[in-house]
Amino acid sequence: MNDTVGPVFAALADGTRRQVVQTLATGHRATATSLAAELPMSRQAVAKHLTALRRAELVRSSRRGRETVYELEPGALTEAASWIAAVGGEWDERLERLGRLVD
Amino acid sequence: MTKVEREITVAAPPEDVWRVLADDALRRDWLQAEVEPEEVEEGRRLEFSWDRDGVGESRVEFTVDAVAEGSRVRVVETALAPAGDWGTRLSALGSASALALA
Asked: Smallest CA–CA separation between B65 and chain A, in Å?
Protein backbone atom coordinates (compact mmCIF):
# COMPACT_ATOMS: atom_id res chain seq x y z
CA MET A 1 0.00 0.00 0.00
CA ASN A 2 1.51 3.37 -0.93
CA ASP A 3 1.67 6.56 1.12
CA THR A 4 -1.42 8.08 -0.48
CA VAL A 5 -3.72 5.12 -0.14
CA GLY A 6 -2.71 4.17 3.44
CA PRO A 7 -4.22 7.14 5.29
CA VAL A 8 -7.19 7.26 2.90
CA PHE A 9 -7.96 3.65 3.67
CA ALA A 10 -7.56 4.13 7.42
CA ALA A 11 -9.91 7.11 7.32
CA LEU A 12 -12.56 5.25 5.32
CA ALA A 13 -12.30 1.99 7.29
CA ASP A 14 -14.61 3.59 9.84
CA GLY A 15 -18.33 3.36 8.99
CA THR A 16 -19.16 6.69 10.61
CA ARG A 17 -16.50 8.53 8.63
CA ARG A 18 -17.80 6.96 5.43
CA GLN A 19 -21.20 8.43 6.36
CA VAL A 20 -19.62 11.86 6.81
CA VAL A 21 -17.86 11.59 3.44
CA GLN A 22 -21.05 10.33 1.81
CA THR A 23 -22.97 13.33 3.14
CA LEU A 24 -20.28 15.73 1.92
CA ALA A 25 -20.26 13.94 -1.45
CA THR A 26 -23.94 14.78 -1.96
CA GLY A 27 -24.27 18.04 -0.05
CA HIS A 28 -21.20 19.92 -1.30
CA ARG A 29 -20.15 22.08 1.68
CA ALA A 30 -21.04 21.72 5.32
CA THR A 31 -20.09 22.72 8.84
CA ALA A 32 -19.71 20.34 11.79
CA THR A 33 -23.03 21.70 13.06
CA SER A 34 -24.92 21.14 9.81
CA LEU A 35 -23.48 17.63 9.46
CA ALA A 36 -24.48 16.78 13.03
CA ALA A 37 -28.05 17.79 12.15
CA GLU A 38 -28.09 15.29 9.28
CA LEU A 39 -26.25 12.41 10.95
CA PRO A 40 -27.09 10.47 14.11
CA MET A 41 -24.17 11.86 16.09
CA SER A 42 -23.13 14.84 18.16
CA ARG A 43 -21.35 17.90 16.79
CA GLN A 44 -18.26 16.90 18.81
CA ALA A 45 -18.22 13.43 17.23
CA VAL A 46 -18.58 14.93 13.75
CA ALA A 47 -15.76 17.38 14.43
CA LYS A 48 -13.48 14.53 15.52
CA HIS A 49 -14.21 12.58 12.36
CA LEU A 50 -13.71 15.66 10.19
CA THR A 51 -10.26 16.12 11.73
CA ALA A 52 -9.36 12.51 10.84
CA LEU A 53 -10.68 13.01 7.29
CA ARG A 54 -8.73 16.24 6.92
CA ARG A 55 -5.53 14.51 8.06
CA ALA A 56 -6.13 11.89 5.37
CA GLU A 57 -6.61 14.79 2.93
CA LEU A 58 -10.06 13.55 2.01
CA VAL A 59 -11.75 16.79 3.05
CA ARG A 60 -10.52 20.34 3.23
CA SER A 61 -11.65 23.16 5.44
CA SER A 62 -11.90 26.91 5.12
CA ARG A 63 -13.06 29.69 7.45
CA ARG A 64 -16.28 31.52 6.73
CA GLY A 65 -16.83 34.14 9.40
CA ARG A 66 -16.74 32.28 12.71
CA GLU A 67 -17.46 28.93 11.12
CA THR A 68 -15.25 26.26 9.59
CA VAL A 69 -16.67 24.95 6.35
CA TYR A 70 -15.77 21.50 5.07
CA GLU A 71 -15.90 20.06 1.58
CA LEU A 72 -14.52 17.01 -0.16
CA GLU A 73 -10.98 17.41 -1.42
CA PRO A 74 -11.37 17.25 -5.18
CA GLY A 75 -9.38 14.45 -6.72
CA ALA A 76 -8.31 13.05 -3.35
CA LEU A 77 -9.55 9.69 -4.39
CA THR A 78 -8.47 8.29 -7.67
CA GLU A 79 -10.66 5.53 -9.01
CA ALA A 80 -8.23 2.85 -7.87
CA ALA A 81 -7.59 4.31 -4.43
CA SER A 82 -11.29 4.75 -3.73
CA TRP A 83 -12.05 1.22 -4.89
CA ILE A 84 -9.32 -0.11 -2.59
CA ALA A 85 -10.56 1.97 0.32
CA ALA A 86 -14.19 0.96 -0.15
CA VAL A 87 -13.60 -2.75 -0.81
CA GLY A 88 -10.94 -2.97 1.92
CA GLY A 89 -13.32 -1.42 4.45
CA GLU A 90 -15.97 -3.98 3.55
CA TRP A 91 -13.56 -6.89 4.03
CA ASP A 92 -12.42 -5.57 7.40
CA GLU A 93 -16.05 -5.72 8.52
CA ARG A 94 -16.73 -9.12 6.93
CA LEU A 95 -13.60 -10.75 8.35
CA GLU A 96 -14.42 -9.41 11.78
CA ARG A 97 -17.89 -10.97 11.44
CA LEU A 98 -16.31 -14.25 10.31
CA GLY A 99 -14.12 -14.23 13.41
CA ARG A 100 -17.22 -13.83 15.59
CA LEU A 101 -19.11 -16.56 13.67
CA VAL A 102 -16.47 -19.25 14.23
CA ASP A 103 -15.32 -18.21 17.69
CA MET B 1 -4.66 -4.34 -11.55
CA THR B 2 -6.66 -2.95 -8.64
CA LYS B 3 -6.89 -5.38 -5.77
CA VAL B 4 -7.38 -5.62 -2.04
CA GLU B 5 -5.74 -8.18 0.22
CA ARG B 6 -6.76 -8.88 3.78
CA GLU B 7 -5.86 -11.51 6.34
CA ILE B 8 -7.30 -12.52 9.69
CA THR B 9 -6.24 -15.14 12.21
CA VAL B 10 -9.10 -16.72 14.11
CA ALA B 11 -9.03 -19.02 17.13
CA ALA B 12 -10.94 -21.83 15.40
CA PRO B 13 -9.83 -24.87 13.38
CA PRO B 14 -9.70 -24.50 9.57
CA GLU B 15 -12.65 -26.94 9.24
CA ASP B 16 -14.93 -24.50 11.09
CA VAL B 17 -13.85 -21.60 8.88
CA TRP B 18 -14.17 -23.70 5.74
CA ARG B 19 -17.75 -24.62 6.66
CA VAL B 20 -18.74 -20.92 6.61
CA LEU B 21 -17.03 -20.42 3.23
CA ALA B 22 -18.29 -23.59 1.55
CA ASP B 23 -21.81 -24.04 2.95
CA ASP B 24 -24.22 -22.07 0.76
CA ALA B 25 -26.50 -20.93 3.59
CA LEU B 26 -23.70 -20.05 6.02
CA ARG B 27 -21.79 -18.21 3.31
CA ARG B 28 -24.87 -16.25 2.30
CA ASP B 29 -25.52 -15.22 5.90
CA TRP B 30 -21.94 -14.15 6.34
CA LEU B 31 -21.44 -12.25 3.06
CA GLN B 32 -25.05 -11.10 2.79
CA ALA B 33 -24.81 -11.96 -0.87
CA GLU B 34 -25.62 -14.91 -3.10
CA VAL B 35 -22.48 -16.10 -4.88
CA GLU B 36 -21.59 -19.16 -6.94
CA PRO B 37 -18.20 -20.75 -6.10
CA GLU B 38 -16.32 -21.24 -9.36
CA GLU B 39 -13.08 -22.84 -8.27
CA VAL B 40 -12.86 -24.90 -5.11
CA GLU B 41 -9.92 -26.71 -3.58
CA GLU B 42 -11.72 -28.60 -0.81
CA GLY B 43 -10.87 -27.33 2.65
CA ARG B 44 -8.42 -24.73 1.48
CA ARG B 45 -9.29 -22.44 -1.41
CA LEU B 46 -12.48 -21.02 -2.89
CA GLU B 47 -13.02 -18.48 -5.66
CA PHE B 48 -16.06 -16.64 -6.96
CA SER B 49 -16.96 -13.55 -8.97
CA TRP B 50 -19.60 -11.03 -8.08
CA ASP B 51 -20.91 -7.74 -9.35
CA ARG B 52 -22.04 -5.26 -6.73
CA ASP B 53 -23.83 -1.95 -7.23
CA GLY B 54 -21.34 0.87 -7.19
CA VAL B 55 -18.33 -1.44 -6.80
CA GLY B 56 -18.46 -3.26 -10.13
CA GLU B 57 -17.45 -6.75 -11.13
CA SER B 58 -14.66 -8.42 -9.20
CA ARG B 59 -13.14 -11.77 -8.36
CA VAL B 60 -12.71 -12.99 -4.78
CA GLU B 61 -10.30 -15.68 -3.63
CA PHE B 62 -10.25 -17.15 -0.12
CA THR B 63 -7.43 -19.27 1.27
CA VAL B 64 -7.62 -21.00 4.64
CA ASP B 65 -4.49 -22.30 6.39
CA ALA B 66 -3.91 -23.97 9.75
CA VAL B 67 -1.70 -21.93 12.07
CA ALA B 68 -0.68 -22.38 15.72
CA GLU B 69 -3.44 -20.01 16.92
CA GLY B 70 -6.16 -21.67 14.82
CA SER B 71 -6.69 -20.60 11.21
CA ARG B 72 -5.46 -17.88 8.96
CA VAL B 73 -7.98 -16.67 6.39
CA ARG B 74 -6.70 -14.69 3.46
CA VAL B 75 -8.93 -12.86 1.01
CA VAL B 76 -7.92 -11.23 -2.25
CA GLU B 77 -10.49 -9.24 -4.21
CA THR B 78 -9.49 -8.11 -7.71
CA ALA B 79 -11.44 -5.59 -9.77
CA LEU B 80 -12.54 -6.96 -13.14
CA ALA B 81 -14.43 -3.95 -14.46
CA PRO B 82 -14.03 -0.22 -13.93
CA ALA B 83 -15.81 0.91 -10.78
CA GLY B 84 -18.63 3.43 -10.86
CA ASP B 85 -18.39 7.01 -9.66
CA TRP B 86 -17.49 7.26 -6.08
CA GLY B 87 -20.70 8.75 -4.72
CA THR B 88 -22.56 5.69 -5.96
CA ARG B 89 -19.96 3.45 -4.41
CA LEU B 90 -20.33 5.08 -1.01
CA SER B 91 -24.11 4.70 -1.23
CA ALA B 92 -23.58 1.01 -1.85
CA LEU B 93 -21.27 0.85 1.17
CA GLY B 94 -23.86 2.65 3.25
CA SER B 95 -26.51 0.05 2.50
CA ALA B 96 -24.01 -2.76 3.11
CA SER B 97 -23.25 -1.32 6.56
CA ALA B 98 -26.96 -0.95 7.31
CA LEU B 99 -27.48 -4.63 6.42
CA ALA B 100 -24.59 -5.64 8.66
CA LEU B 101 -26.22 -3.89 11.60
CA ALA B 102 -29.72 -5.26 10.91
From this structure: 14
pLDDT in tens, chain B (102 residues): 678 999 999 999 999 999 999 999 999 999 999 999 999 999 999 999 999 877 788 999 999 999 999 999 999 999 886 544 555 555 555 444 444 433
Q: For residue A82, what is the nearest residue in chain B, using CA coordinates?
A: B86
Q: Would you list the domain boundaries of chain A?
A: 5-98
Domain A5-98 part of CATH 3.40.50.720? no
- Residue A32 and residue A67 in contact, taking contact as beta carbons nearer than 8 Å: no
Tell whether ipTM is more than 0.90: no
Give CA–CA dist A78/B55, Å, rounded: 14
Task: State the nearest Cα–Cα gap between B55 and chain A, in angstroms.
Answer: 7
Backbone angles phi, psi at B73, to 5 degrees: -110, 125
